[in-house]
TrEMBL record:
A GO molecular-function annotation: nicotinamide-nucleotide adenylyltransferase activity
Gene3D superfamilies documented for this protein: HUPs
Superkingdom in the source lineage: Eukaryota
Pfam family, one: CTP_transf_like
Any one Gene Ontology cellular component term annotated for this protein: cytoplasm
Name this polypeptide is given: Cytidyltransferase-like domain-containing protein
Organism whose genome encodes this protein: Oryza rufipogon
Domain Cytidyltransferase-like: 202-363
Amino acid sequence: MESWVRAVVEAIHSSRAQAVIYLAGGASQALGWLLSVPGASGTVLEVVVPYSMASMAQLLGKMPLQFTSKQAAEDMALAAFNRALKLSGPGLQVMGVGFTGFYVSTRTQNCLRTSHVTLSKGLRSREEEDKVSSYFLLKAIADGCKVPATIQSDVQEPELPKESVEQFDEDQELQQVIDGQVCMKVYHFSDSMDKNFNRKIILPGSFNPLHDGHLRLLEVASSMCDDGLPCFEISAINADKPPLSIAEIKRRVEQFRKNVIISNQPYFYKKAELFPGSAFVIGADTAARLVNPKYYGGDYNRMLEILLECKNTGTTFLVGGRNIEGVFKVLEDLDIPVELREMFISIPEEKFRMDISSTDIRKKQGP
């Protein structure tokens, strides 16, 4: 490996960004370079080579009009970005990479970069072309990680990549979540890079408004799972209401001083897919609804099947006490099916009890 290539690879790994890479053809040497240097496992989350038509169609959820087009590369980068969001370590920046042989595209939270790679015909062997394409791919990944990289090879002037860059502002990012293009947007309000967390501890809710009970509940849950990054989560999509507006999402986010995630999944079984291995912090009232067949079309077995799928993702639920129809109840008061009991962890009443709700606060505030 050339010394400059190694230096670029080491810089990419040290940036602590994490990437999913989808390659439809070529640039295979770049993978060898990335994976041969220590630190690769912290950068490269997954590599997929959708080489056949069926593989590409399944990857993108549609059949691209042209497999080597700019649109195909950008669609691959977006799919890879969403995959990286789900697989990435808590608190780390992520990137999706798509390469079709003619176009390389990288997608981060607020930026889409696409380069057109055109190599002169007959000038190089296939192996040499793969090496030059690998240079271009490596530089694209470095640019996405904000790492300086200059291609050092016999590339001729007409072969230099022609790049287009599209930046997204906050409103555009949120609209992409609402529209289902991007699965989440993460607001980092606290420095989470000083510790390597194994998972997320997520308190979902509408937070309209955020109150001391929410803050205290997440604090107590975090003390019980010190290997997790504490986060709040708001779903932009509601099961039985219109989506939240961009202005409303931003208004609610302004309340926070801790990490908050905006997702597009209102259901817990979908949240479990989105945040595998996470611990969700919920109240006893929510836990009671989770195991109630009424919310699964009255089908007990369906309820069991869905929650066992959540269990298989490594999901757990930390359950705090709540007033249910005027009676304060904790996890032990609920009838949890034996197959699911190890998923549910009780937050003792002596550690957390606050009889407060956002609904009551709104009523007191008036219209």
